[in-house]
Amino acid sequence: MFCVVKEFTFDAAHNLVEYHGKCEKLHGHTYKLQIMVCGERDKEGMVIDFIDLKKIVQEEVLSYLDHAYINEIIPQPSAENIAEWIWNKLEEKLSSERYKLSEVRLWETPTSFVIYRK
């Protein structure tokens, strides 16, 4: 089995309404997103074409989250909840007989990230 990984970045604002601390105030991040798809190679020797993976993530995730106020999309936009939302947007699109979505990693800061797997 092989795993194909592609990284993305996006900028967005949010505030954590159910949190008591500085993150309850409106603020922004440059998020780093890593998508992992695992499976078997096709006749061309690829699990999934990086171009196709990029297009799917752009259409299903980045078009919504980049330069957005995430609270308008996810009521309590913690890193965990954002990663789960991303998984739910991508799971069906990144599933075939040969491969499936394996992992979503989302960095909120350069040193803090969450991993979502199902």
TrEMBL record:
Organism listed in the record: Fervidobacterium nodosum (strain ATCC 35602 / DSM 5306 / Rt17-B1)
Biological pathway: Purine metabolism; 7-cyano-7-deazaguanine biosynthesis
Catalytic activity: 7,8-dihydroneopterin 3'-triphosphate + H2O = 6-carboxy-5,6,7,8-tetrahydropterin + triphosphate + acetaldehyde + 2 H(+)
Keyword Zinc: yes
Cofactor note: Binds 1 zinc ion per subunit.
Name of the protein: 6-carboxy-5,6,7,8-tetrahydropterin synthase
Any one GO molecular-function label of the UniProt entry: 6-carboxytetrahydropterin synthase activity
Binding site for Zn(2+): H14, H27, H29
Active site positions, chain numbering: C23 (proton acceptor), H67 (charge relay system), E108 (charge relay system)
NCBIfam families: queuosine_QueD
GO aspect biological process, one term: tRNA queuosine(34) biosynthetic process
UniProt KW keywords: Lyase, Metal-binding, Queuosine biosynthesis, Zinc
Family: Belongs to the PTPS family. QueD subfamily.
Swiss-Prot/TrEMBL cofactor(s): Zn(2+)
Signal peptide start-end: none
Annotated EC: 4.-.-.-
